[in-house]
Specification:
Length: about 80
């Protein structure tokens, strides 16, 4: 599994409770891939940068955004806590 740089750990880990375990792993791959990607940072380019383009289930990363139910009321307390600290 990927390891986070120590400076990013408290920020990213604050969002763990908002995701199921399987979805969290996909979200981490997309996050790291977006950071490392050159040019456009798309859902397709992020796993490619992470070396997962040959993976059989490459398509599993797209539903994270188009099928997930997102609610700003769930994320707002986490963002506020990060801003205050």
């Amino acid at each position: 599994m990927l390891t986070l740089p120590s400076a990013f750990t408290p920020i990213i880990v604050a969002f763990v409770p908002l995701f199921f375990n399987r979805v969290w792993r996909c979200a981490l791959i997309l996050l790291f891939g977006a950071i490392l990607a050159l040019g456009q940072r798309t859902v397709t380019s992020a796993p490619r940068v992470m070396g997962l383009s040959a993976e059989r289930l490459f398509r599993i990363y797209h539903p994270l955004f188009n099928r997930a139910v997102w609610g700003c009321r769930l994320t707002t307390p986490h963002l506020l806590l990060l801003l205050v600290t």
